[in-house]
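Translate sequence into structure tokens.
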Amino acid sequence: MIVLCRVMQVSTSAYYAWKNQPERTEKTQQKKRLEDKTRELFEMSKHSYGTRRLSDALNKAGYQAGRDKVRRLMKQLGLEVHYPKRFKVTTDSDHHETISPNTLNRQFEVGSPNTVWTTDITYIWTLEGWLYLAVVIDLFSRQVVGWAITDHIRASLCVSAL
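Result follows.
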């Protein structure tokens, strides 16, 4: 064997490392592709897909994977579902703060542009989850002055719409 390695200009340690490596069969390659796709779909779901939804997504992608197989894969790959926290109601209607005056008094007819702007926030369901759209409209021209869309509903959403 030493003579063959010298003729081929390969070290004996490289030959034995090549010889002793595990065989790459179609089954191991298929398992590797399934693991990669599982990890990819799980990351795309923002760690929210459990075994049911992940196995459905894998089946739609052309992989055969039942819930038990996906459960084993998730455990093997260390994929854990992060459940969203419960929605905390932050509106306090029973407060003693002063209420802002209603300056428009539902009179939406304005005489000049950029005198009165109005805003609204709406929820939009997408395949990726809820998105929040904030829009600022000039009441005179009914034109959109600014808008912003994000996956959270914080004060920065309204500020970025301006």
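Note: The chain has a mean pLDDT of 88.
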